[in-house]
Amino acid sequence: MYSRIFFNQLLMGLKIYLRVPSAMFWMIAFPIVMLMGMGTIFGGSSNSGIKLVWSQTAADSSEDVSLRHALAELGLTLEMLTPTQAEERWKEGKLPALLERQGERYSMRVNSYLSGQGMPVVSLVQQGFLMVQARALGTVELTRIPVVMSSPGGHHDGPYAAYLLPGLLGLNLLMMGVFSTGMVDVTLREKGGYKRLATTPLPRHIYLAAQLGVRLTVVIAAAAMLMLVGALVFGITNQGSYLSLLVLLVLGSACFTSMGYLLASFARNVDVYSGFSNMVFLPLMLLSGVYFSLDSAPVWLQRGADILPLTPLLKALRAVFNDGASLTSLGSSLAILAGWTLLLFVLASKRFRWV
User: Domain named ABC transmembrane type-2: which ranges (predicted)?
Assistant: First the structure.
């Protein structure tokens, strides 16, 4: 009997969810757009995606030609402009770095706002210039340290999109729990929906289980579509067990759905909940490594981020998806995530109320 009630609630919840276009966009279309956009922009696995604007005041000298060849060897894409054109581009504020030739000397300008992009370009130009000088003097070029592209698990050398895709899977779970689950809970309570449900024989645990099932179904569908796009556009595929991925998605969904219900229990209306949800969502998104690693952040911040619920989930998802890791090798990540899930579920269950 309970199973029939559960499936009826599950189907009803899915029908309601599918009738909200904005919810479908944020859960399915948004991750795909982010993967394609950021994966394309930051997707270069070498220096081939780095462009350098070069401003010249006169015809090419032999040194210019040699430097161009050296920079091409290093993988830089060059765009040659006149000083006037280069200055106009510089004033637009979009150039991270600009190489200029003034008389017999070269100089470089780095946009202070974009130094994170500009300084790697400077390093490559300096390296190319040293190569030119060594060749001109007839001296032996200094040996460069070999560079090998490899993932942390050493399984393959996937592009940035391979790092991003598991991050977006985890972000989807967070968005589903904090925004979808919590917001719906507050709205139903505010509009009296739970009061009407309280007068029915519907058991509370059946309702909560069905709501978790709805969100898990949507998450799995969104994950399948995201991985399909990743395979078709970027050639990245799951290197591990799909069962392991499913286990992580279920555990993550339970964790963040419980978080959504717990946050909602402290909010009397949607406006208050919006503040709560953003206060939790933004730090988790920024500190857990969804888009980029926190390796350059202060050590205390890294240690704090390590115990957040999203961080171990992303670590586990990347280990399975990119390096084919087994769940048994992810003991610490699973322990932290399971601990958060249990804590949030217990607190959410204690605080959940119909009215």
Answer: 129-355
Indicate the domain borders of the chain. Answer: 2-42+156-351, 47-137
- What is the rounded distance in angstroms from the CA atom of residue 167 to the CA atom of residue 42? 15
Residue 99, beta-bridge partner list: 54, 108
Amino acid at position 132, single letter: V
* Residue 118 in tokens: 């500009």
Is the pLDDT reported for residue 145 higher than 70? no
Task: Please write the tens of the pLDDT for every residue from 273-331.
Answer: 999 899 999 999 999 999 988 887 889 999 999 999 999 999 999 999 998 999 999 99
Of 238, 247, 270, 264, whose CA–CA distance to 337 is shortest?
A: 247
For range 34-39, the mean pLDDT: 91
Q: For residues 78 and 83, what is the distance between their CA atoms, to the nearest angstrom? A: 15
The pLDDT-based confidence of 221 (bands split at 50, 70, 90) is very high
What radius of gyration do the chain's Cα atoms show?
Answer: 26
CA 144 to chain centre: 32
Given the structure tokens 């309570």, which residue do they identify? 189
Q: Is there a contact between 348 and 258 (Cβ–Cβ < 8 Å)?
A: yes
Per DSSP (E only), the strands in the chain are 51-55, 77-81, 97-102, 105-110
Which pLDDT score is estimated for 150? 66
Percent of the chain at pLDDT exceeding 90:
37
Architecture of 47-137 per CATH?
A: 3-Layer(aba) Sandwich (3.40)
- Measured at the alpha carbon of residue 166, what is the angle toward residues 165 and 167, in degrees to the nearest 5? 90
Quick one: average pLDDT of 222-238?
Answer: 94
Cβ neighbours of residue 181 under 8 Å, at least 6 residues apart? 211, 215, 256, 257, 260, 261, 264
Residue 26 has pLDDT above 90, yes or no: no
3-state secondary structure of 290: coil
CA–CA distance, 115 with 296 (Å, rounded to integer): 14
